[in-house]
Amino acid sequence: MINKKNGVIIKYMEEVKIKLSFPLHVKKSIDIIQKIIKKINTIIYVVDSRVFELTFDLNILNKFQLKNKILIIFFNKTDLIDKKDKKNLQDFINNLESNINQIKEKFKLKEIYFIIGNKEKIKDLKNKLKEIANRELFINIVIIGYPNVGKSTIINRLINRSKAKVEDKVGTTRSLQWYSIEYNIKILDSPGIILPTDTTLKDALTLYKFNIISESFIPLPTEKIQSMLRKYEKDSKYNRN
Ligand SMILES: Nc1nc2c(ncn2[C@@H]2O[C@H](COP(=O)(O)OP(=O)(O)OP(=O)(O)O)[C@@H](O)[C@H]2O)c(=O)[nH]1
Ligand SMILES: [Mg+2]
């Protein structure tokens, strides 16, 4: 149950806007991807299905020249969501699909595909990549998304090895690294990207709860973040665990 005092604090968290910080290694990766984007023909954008509203942000695509490229949006970690959230996710994707032509046009993309799942769906992803490689002769892929959404995990499953470092924390991958899936399918792992856009404190705390950002991304003292998180978690409406 939420008491009056907590209610006021939660209202404050919903209204107050903060700017998440922007780690230097992320800026460096964006710079490098911008330089090599001409050699890339496929982008895999990974979303954490538990917080898809917050980890699906196509603004990041504005950073890159995507004319004629193929975009695959992978809604990952669906094993961690319940039936109700799955239904919300499916509605969200249905809505995206109905706007697919506008998205394509906006970023001048050649094709867009959606994959919804977790490790069980890696086979589907691999088949899609092989199909594209057959048509295009080769694929150079870059995998992007927020931190901790499972980018390196997907790469390890695609190459059937645990070469890429995976951990349940922010910023595991610190630099760009190429991996070979097949002789004509290469994939570039990248550190999670957070853009310095305005966000509400409530959304920042949600991202923090799911290890997508760390405390250092939120421009507030640690004690304040911890105490707000405790209050926020007391309200079952916002408690997603
Ligand atoms: N349950 C579940 N856990 C997953 C899935 N995919 C990844 N994980 C876990 O999520 C955590 C983060 O995975 P990573 O692959 O390191 O994430 P990342 O996007 O590469 O993270 P950064 O390198 O920090 O940007 C790890 O603990 C993984 O085991 C999934 O489909 N289901
Ligand atoms: Mg990683």
In short:
Helix content is 41%, strand content 18%.
Task: Write structural notes for this entry.
By secondary structure, the chain is an alpha/beta fold. The mean pLDDT is 90. The chain contains nine helices and eight strands. It has helices at residues 4-15, 24-36, 52-55, 83-98, 100-107, 122-136, 151-159, 201-209, 222-234, and strands spanning 17-19, 42-48, 70-76, 111-116, 139-145, 177-182, 185-189, 198-200. The protein has two domains: 4-19 and 196-238, no CATH class; 24-189, P-loop containing nucleotide triphosphate hydrolases (Rossmann fold), CATH 3.40.50. 41% of the residues lie in helices and 18% in strands. Helix 1 (4-15) crosses helix 9. Strands 4-3-2-5-7-6 form a six-stranded mixed beta sheet, with helices on one face. Strands 1-8 form a two-stranded antiparallel sheet. The protein starts with a helix and ends in a 7-residue tail after the last helix. A hairpin with a 2-residue loop joins strand 6 (177-182) and strand 7 (185-189). Magnesium ion binds next to helix 7.
